[in-house]
Fold this sequence. Notes:
Pfam family, one: Polyketide_cyc
Radius of gyration: 25 Å
Structural class: alpha+beta
Shape: globular
Strand order of the largest sheet: 3-4-5-6
Largest sheet: 4 strands, antiparallel
Number of domains: 2
Domain Coenzyme Q-binding protein COQ10 START: 76-151
Mean pLDDT: 70
Distance between the termini: 31 Å
Low-confidence stretches: 1-31
InterPro entries: COQ10_START, ORF3, START-like_dom_sf
Protein name: Coenzyme Q-binding protein COQ10 START domain-containing protein
Number of helices: 2
Amino acid sequence: xxxxxxxxxxxxxxxxxxHVFPTKTNPIFNCRVPPLKPPSFIRIPYGSFKKPSFFxxxxxxxxxxxxxxxxxxxxxxVPASVAYQLYSDREAIPNWxxxxxxxxxxxxxxxxSRWFVKYKAxxxxxxxxxxxxxxxxxxxxxxxxxxxxxxxxx
Length: 154
């Protein structure tokens, strides 16, 4: 699906979608009815149309995905020692964090762990992993780590 078409359709300047989804006039009732099947949005090479189109007036579609930074904050009514204990047992994290499929602590280096995420998106199974190094914790206050490979963090 073309992202430029979506942003164009949903822009506040487009009060009417008749330029994207043409309508037909019904001579019997003299009213406008949408066509039976709206046009499909497919990737068309930039500049391939002979006549002007909203596809040629925008930048070419790029399938490159960019990482989206997000932060989530949730307050849970449990003692800090309980939360700290849950996070400290890295291999048990998938039991309560459903998007993490597994965490394996390296036997020869217990401060390193390999994290795995598996999910389904756009009809495909996607797997991702990264290596993390635990930094010096502050008991019952702070657990932190740094990604060494696979997933950058700041």
